Amino acid sequence: MNHPSFEEITKASELIRPYIRQTVVIESTIINRLMHGHVFFKCEHQQKAGAFKFRGATHAVFRLDEEEAAKGVATHSSGNHGAALSLAASFRGIDAHIVMPKNAPLVKVENVRNSGGKIVFCEPTLQSREDTLTEVVKDTGAVFIHPYDNYDVICGQGTAALEMLRNTGELDCVLAPVGGGGLLSGTSIATKGLFAGCMVIGAEPENADDACQSFHTGKVVPSVNPETIADGLRTSLSDLTFSIIKKNVTDIFTVSEISIKAAMIMLRKHAGILAEPSSAVPMAAVMENREFFEGKRIGIIITGGNIDTTKYDFWDAEF
């Protein structure tokens, strides 16, 4: 199976540079002390459309030829990819049709609308998403841009790690959350391209541990309606993302729901980062495995900040 190369991620970085925000990398003295290491946060929650997914969506949109682009683009998404694709499409002056589950978080629905997307709601199942998308593509002729099982999307997602490592220099390990695997795939290629000895570690909820199971069994294990606060990590790996992850990733750690909440609180209190649950999963992995990470220089990609804080009643809890 053909994988994106480090050189292609570098080219993607140049292509999307005029459209994306080159987000900052920050540290927290308190978190460093608590973790007994050096943790660098790549703040993609400050990215346009509120998440790293704008990178991959922008790259995919601007890689279309004129004939393809004229018909617009379409996708299915619980929120962040839909908003990202909508905004990227608006920059190119084309339509974006977004199929969203009826139970998608309101903040993400509003984000898609505000980014210019045309929403079609469906039932909250993968089959309904795919069937509804098929009808949309048939009716509009739009090009389907998959949230993660897309070569150009993976290249775009890898640019976040590329920027981070050019800022921090060599790290001992880089962590990214894993749902469908687009970010972790691109991150692994970029990281290994710059620093071959750097570990790349995926992180996911133990309630949605299909990627971890896939990694350790050697075959794709599907995600079947998992129950987790990290709504962006409920999807399954694709054959493409899994093949890249198998080649480049050191391990995949799983974390509890309480640790995800604790990580959200820690990031907010001590780093000023308002991270949506999926974004906090790598920090939770460091917190649950402090001995493994002790003394290391660690890079974490904070993937998104599209969050409705009123949904959660744990902000004042002490961990």
Explain what this protein looks like in three dimensions:
The chain has 319 residues and is of the alpha/beta class. It contains 14 helices and 10 strands. It has a 6-stranded mixed sheet, with helices on both faces. α8 packs across α9 (182-194) and α12 (257-271) crosses α13 (277-288).
List the helices and strands and how they pair.
Elements: H1 6-16, E1 25-26, H2 29-35, E2 38-43, H3 53-62, H4 66-70, E3 73-76, H5 80-92, E4 96-101, H6 106-114, E5 118-122, H7 126-140, E6 143-144, H8 151-168, E7 173-177, H9 182-194, E8 199-205, H10 210-217, H11 239-248, E9 251-255, H12 257-271, H13 277-288, H14 290-293, E10 297-302
Parallel strand pairs: 2-10, 3-4, 3-6, 4-5, 7-8, 7-10, 8-9
Antiparallel strand pairs: 1-2
Helix pairs in contact: 1-8, 1-9, 3-5, 3-8, 5-6, 8-9, 9-11, 12-13
Keywords:
alpha/beta, four-stranded parallel sheet, ATP binding, 14 helices, 319 residues, Rossmann fold, pyridoxal phosphate, TrpB-like_PALP
Quick summary of this structure?
By secondary structure, the protein is of the alpha/beta class. The chain contains 14 helices and ten strands. InterPro entries: TrpB-like_PALP (IPR001926), TrpB-like_PALP_sf (IPR036052).
How would you write the strand order of the largest sheet?
Answer: 1-2-10-7-8-9
CATH architecture of the largest domain: 3-Layer(aba) Sandwich
CATH C-level name of the largest domain? Alpha Beta
Structure annotation, total helices:
14
Q: What quaternary form is this?
A: single chain
Helical percentage = 40-55%
Average pLDDT number: 94
**What is the CA-CA span between the terminal residues?**
44 Å
Number of strands: 10
What is the chain-wise order of helices and strands? HEHEHHEHEHEHEHEHEHHEHHHE
Note the overall shape: globular
